[in-house]
Amino acid sequence: RQKKLEQMMEEEGLKDEEKRIRRSAHAQKETEFLRLKRTRLGLEDFESLKVIGRGAFGEVRLVQKKDTGHVYAMKILRKADMLEKEQVGHIRAERDILVEADSLWVVKMFYSFQDKLNLYLIMEFLPGGDMMTLLMKKDTLTEEETQFYIAETVLAIDSIHQLGFIHRDIKPDNLLLDSKGHVKLSDFGLCTGLKKAHRTEFYRNLNHSLPSDFTFQNMNSKRKAETWKRNRRQLAFSTVGTPDYIAPEVFMQTGYNKLCDWWSLGVIMYEMLIGYPPFCSETPQETYKKVMNWKETLTFPPEVPISDKAKDLILRFCCEWEHRIGASGVEEIKSNLFFEGVDWEHIRERPAAISIEIKSIDDTSNFDEFPESDILKPTVATSNHPETDYKNKDWVFINYTYKRFEGLTARGAIPSYMKAGK
């Protein structure tokens, strides 16, 4: 860390006095970090302000750390549910990605800890809400707005691909917006729980027959969009989840690679411009059939205007994986005609396509309202799952605890991730 600091100061060309101040602040932070590493963090260190997300395996709350006053998003996951639904591998992978990904494009995790009942992830709070909520507020986005969000998401997806991860669950719920309206990728949509290999087992038993969803097929695009938006929130809460954004090869047992994330991005791009995703149906089973028969079902409604270059990019994303754009690297995507004029180097410093109104650092106006729950009350949690049921399996959660060095700032100071351009 000291080496990194010296390197940064050299690059910035700081004067000796400024370097001295920086080194002193760094030394103080190191001392504080070592003290924190020895301190056992727990629920009692945070004050819960509001529930901002709920899903199948737990919930997300806006919390304030009592000693510094900083606000965070606290993800609470019930251990009993994790074990029952075989989610342990996924929560472990999620924690590992968050620890490794030190990128402006990925939601930062500052701490993780556990108690007898729950696992806790303390993450940066992004007051802009998520892309799902933004798309539900607007009928469609303009091509200019779509270009901005898709370009930022290309960089976000590429940043995790560079770490060797495949996301496999790219969807609007997992694209969060910071206070300036810029995209950050999360592996944990604020509404859904974690994925079990995409719940693909649920769909594998279905045959690949053509969809029989004629009610949806005969609707015009306006009615389709209305129906989709009406059902959308329910889908976000379901443990099975929606297959709308999942690449067909992920459902096949023949294997897939990181290109599956680019298919998902194509589906999101279609939804931004058309008002609903291309394979939406009355039921997830019908959607699955449409995805598997995408050559027949991926069509564009004639009444919705869309440019040829936008349509072309969608079709380059949503095609057989071996022909998919991005197969030869991210530069192939960045040089596509649709992105003409994008300043890839500075996109995050530029104003976002849609500005976000934030009144304070704990503003939750871009989130849904959720009633209070009793997830933190042991009496309720243990009545259904006696502690002994899973106490013997507690070893699977060993080494879950984590503290991030960058999470430390003096009381009352604004954490760097909340400052402009971060």
Can you walk me through this structure?
- By secondary structure, this protein is α+β, with helices and mostly antiparallel strands.
- The protein folds into two domains: 40-125 and 361-418, Phosphorylase Kinase, domain 1 (2-Layer Sandwich); 131-339, Transferase(Phosphotransferase) domain 1 (Transferase(Phosphotransferase), domain 1, Orthogonal Bundle).
- Helices cover 39% and strands 11% of the residues.
- The chain contains 17 helices and eight strands.
- It has helices spanning 2-12, 16-38, 79-84, 88-100, 131-137, 143-161, 200-204, 214-217, 221-237, 248-251, 260-274, 284-292, 294-297, 308-317, 330-334, 378-384, 387-391, and strands at 46-55, 58-65, 71-78, 109-114, 118-124, 175-177, 183-185, 402-403.
- The strands form two sheets. The protein has a six-stranded antiparallel sheet. Strands 6-7 form a two-stranded antiparallel sheet.
- A hairpin with a 5-residue loop joins strand 2 (58-65) and strand 3 (71-78).
- Helix 1 (2-12) runs antiparallel to helix 2 and helix 6 (143-161) runs antiparallel to helix 11 (260-274).
- The protein is globular.
- The two termini are 20 Å apart.
- The model is unreliable at 188-203, 379-396 and 405-422 (pLDDT under 50).
